Amino acid sequence: MRIAQVAPLAESCPPKLYGGTERIVHFLTDELVRQGHDVTLFASGDSQTEGKLVPCVPQALRLVDGASNLIPYHVGMVEQIRRRLDQFDLVHFHIDLFHYAAIREWNTPTVTTLHGRLDVPGLDSCYRAFPDVPLVSISDHQRSPLPPVNWVQTIYHGLPENMLPFDPDGGDYLVFLGRISPEKRPDRAIEIAVRSGKPLKIAAKVDLVDVEYWETEIRPMVEAYDNVEYIGEVDETQKAELLGKAAALVFPIDWPEPFGLVMIEALSCGTPVIAWRNGSVPEVIQDGVSGRIVESIEEAVAAVKVVVAMPRAAIREQFDKRFTAERMALNYVGVYERLIKERSVELNSVSHRNLREGLTKRVSDGSTHMMASTRA
User: Which of 247, 286, 306, 362 could serve as a FRET partner for 135 with CA atoms 20 to 30 Å apart?
Assistant: First the structure.
């Protein structure tokens, strides 16, 4: 198949540090190439891919001064894709809704994976206006806020099987990995560490919008306890070491998490997860096998002693069965094949209908001409 993958332009594929969507697009593109498909990646020019790269901006827009408004860049990217449509059997979008109006005029089939939360004001009216756009969700729970739309499948994220190696031994500390923000609840992670007596390593970025939250609430907590260490952002190599040597990942979210990539990163290492029952968590974590799902600080503290005794090989087995890049790509290929077939049937039906209408019109025109000649 000839497939176009369309990535957000805020980060490169893969991102240098924090970034989930672009990382998944990178893994998916490379795995599709490995499986023999002809894949073109539309992304920032500093991206890396085993496919063909079409650079839509020179570098990730997060690194460009004055590029805070991402809309013009993504609209321009959609136009670049339109001009190349004859090169693709299908276009796979990962850019939310920038392309919806444009693709209505395309004969090339498309699919859009939604990577973010969908309980955002205004989205409901948008999706009521575009109910036929084929959509993929990254968890079943993610779908719940939207009105009826054209969901074609839920496909969980996947990682290359050797990217985060299995560590059979682990270590003695807890880890919080991701982003410092109120909905991620690093304060809960700190409280769990303090009450359980375990060291905690916090590896997370601080966005500009969360600087005040970090300075006024989280940083004072970090500085107040000797067993809490703030590391900052980490790259893939550092992440593998950090997660592999952890006793457990603490995922104390307080929002409807669409997927939670860090959970399967931990599972790849064989590291158990202690996670709040929000969003996708019950779909990703098998309670009692790959971690514990909790609803309070007290339950989380009690879970620490439980998860450190879980067989790490069984946790890694969950990853191998459910969350590899190979499985993710195969699931998407099934969606691509189905949508290409449906569009082919649709176009053939339209062509036959137009042919019949043309024949009917010619016959009608001929009859009218004959009647006119007879009257003459």
Answer: 286
Run of H or E including 271: none
What is the identity of the amino acid at 109? P
If DSSP codes are grouped into helix, strand and coil, which group holds residue 152? strand
Nearest-angstrom CA–CA distance, 333 and 345: 18
Three-state SS annotation for 174-237? EEEEEECCCCCCHHHHHHHHHHHCCCEEEEEECCHHHHHHHHHHHHHHHHHCCCEEECCCCCHH
Identity of the residue numbered 349: S
What's the whole-number mean pLDDT along residues 116-127?
92
Of 62, 262, 275, the residue nearest 178 (C-alpha) = 262
Q: Are 307 and 252 in contact (CB under 8 A)?
A: no
Query: How much of the chain, in percent, has pLDDT values that exceed 70?
Result: 92
Buried b (16+ CB within 10 A) or exposed e, 16-40: eebbbbbbbbbbbbbbbbeeebebb
pLDDT digits (tens, 9 = 90+) for 354-368: 656 666 666 666 655
Q: What's the CA gap between 120 and 202, in Å, rounded?
A: 28
> Tokens standing for 124?
């409901």
Would you state the pLDDT for residue 64? 83
* H/E run at residue 376: none
What is the CB neighbour count within 10 angstroms for residue 80?
13
Q: Hey, which bits of the chain come out as E strands?
A: 2-6, 38-44, 52-57, 90-93, 110-113, 135-137, 151-154, 173-179, 200-205, 228-230, 246-251, 273-276, 291-294
- The region that residue 317 occupies, defined by phi over 0 for left and psi between -120 and 50 for alpha, beta otherwise, is alpha
